[in-house]
Design a protein that fits this description.
This protein has 242 residues and is of the alpha/beta class. It has helices at 16-26, 42-50, 65-78, 102-130, 151-171, 190-195, 197-200, 211-223; strands at residues 6-10, 30-35, 54-59, 82-87, 133-140, 176-183, 232-235. 44% of the residues lie in helices and 18% in strands. It has a seven-stranded parallel β-sheet with strand order 3-2-1-4-5-6-7, with helices on both faces.
């Protein structure tokens, strides 16, 4: 017996991805959450279950084609149709172009772009057959401009944005809503709190992004009627320069 609706969140981390999973679970979706390590998903699973939601955790390497194919098949056959895919993998690793290695550059591209293609392709196949669905790609400031020391990350994120545009133009007429978000600013995470305390202090002034509010925006995109779809949405604190 399968559920009526499933939401697949690839890269369900402790902040944005987890908040998105919780938002869709609150709306009655079976939240299917992935990370490379199953253990790291347990706090999120416990939180969603405590809130009365349905959640399924998967250890999956989004860069591996065979794992992505198997994951989508497992969800579709045993949980329910994937109505929404959120691709939320970052891979933000700054490095000077003078010292960047081919191995690390390629790994960043695999994580932030290639894995988006794999997951988007596999889910799109199922959605097109049903004539409905939402695919949301998480972008960043680097999706729009390449800053110094971010050649790998910006290259991958710009490519992900192009992927989203191409998919939207191909799949929109077939009933699939493809959207790309530009998250422009620091997010309320443990990483920011520990490494950038001055930036984290802006939280009291709404100067950093709240993951719960990001999640609300993702839900809004999914809930949009098809006569008024947004393709690209940028989110930033009121005080962020752009």
């Amino acid at each position: 017996m399968t559920a009526s609706r499933a939401a697949l969140i690839v890269g369900a981390g402790d902040a944005t991805g987890g908040a998105i999973a919780r938002r869709f679970a609150r709306a009655g979706y079976a939240a299917c959450v992935t990370r490379r390590s199953l253990d790291k998903l347990q706090p999120l699973v416990a939180q969603i279950e405590a809130e009365g939601g349905t959640v399924h955790a998967f250890a999956s390497d989004a860069r591996k084609e065979e794992e992505v194919v198997a994951l989508v098949e497992q969800i579709e056959s045993s949980i329910g149709p994937i109505e929404v895919l959120v691709f939320n993998i970052g891979a933000n690793v700054p490095e000077s172009i003078l010292t960047e290695t081919a191995r690390k550059y390629f790994k960043v591209w695999e994580m932030a772009c290639f894995s988006g293609f794999l997951n988007g392709r596999e889910v799109a196949k199922r959605m097109v057959a049903r004539g409905r669905g939402t695919i949301l790609f998480t972008g960043a400031t680097a999706s729009l401009r390449g800053s110094a020391n971010f050649a790998a990350f910006s290259g991958a994120k710009m490519a992900l944005r192009a992927l989203a545009q191409s998919m939207a133009r191909e799949l929109g007429p077939r009933g699939i809503h493809v959207a790309h978000t530009v998250i422009d600013g620091a997010i309320d995470t443990e990483f920011i709190r520990s490494n950038f305390p001055e930036r984290y202090a802006l939280k009291t002034e709404d100067g950093i992004l709240n993951p719960e509010h990001i999640a609300d925006a993702y839900w809004m995109l999914h809930a949009q009627p098809r006569d008024a779809w947004t393709h690209e949405l940028d989110l930033r604190p009121w005080s962020e320069k752009f």
